[in-house]
Amino acid sequence: MAGVYLFDLASQQARYLAVRQATIAGNVANANTPDYRARDVVPFAQVLARTGLEMAATASAHLDGEGLRIPVRTAESRDGWDVLETSSSVSLEQEMLKASDVSREHSLNAGVVKSFHRMLMAAVRGGA
């Protein structure tokens, strides 16, 4: 069985989240800049896919349940958003939602690392 590099993975995601937050902050700062185009980073799943790590199942029922799949749809760009007529492509509402997502993901990341660290310390103290 290959090693579990949870701390490395969490560190990579934290760096990704920092870059995404800086990108969002740049979009907000330039919201009134003429002809400025909003930017975003690629999703973390795509960044992780480049590393060559793949999910593995220890039993066939763990990851693949035919009746358990949830259908998803692809959202259209600017679908359902009121767009103000400006020369900038930045939507402050969308940028604030993205910033909220980054904050939530960062909190989840920190919580997982903290829990894993507690488990590791308990194992070390217990002599396991």
Residue-averaged pLDDT, rounded?
A: 76
Q: Strand portion, in percent? A: under 5%
The chain-level structural class is: mainly alpha
The biggest sheet amounts to: none
Shape: elongated
**First and last CA, distance:** 18 Å
Helix segment tally: 4
The quaternary state of the protein chains shown equals single chain
Give the radius of gyration.
20 Å
The percent range for helix content is 40-55%
Number of strands: 0
- State the order of secondary-structure elements, H for helix, E for strand: HHHH
Uncertain spans: 67-85
Topology:
Layout: H1 6-29, H2 44-49, H3 60-63, H4 92-125
Helix pairs in contact: 1-4
Short note summarizing the structure:
The protein is mostly helical and 128 residues long. Helices cover 53% and strands 0% of the residues. The protein has helices at residues 6-29, 44-49, 60-63, 92-125.
Task: Give your account of this protein's structure.
The chain is an all-alpha fold and 128 residues long. Residues 67-85 have low confidence and may be disordered. Helix content is 53%, strand content 0%.
Keywords:
128 residues, elongated, mainly alpha
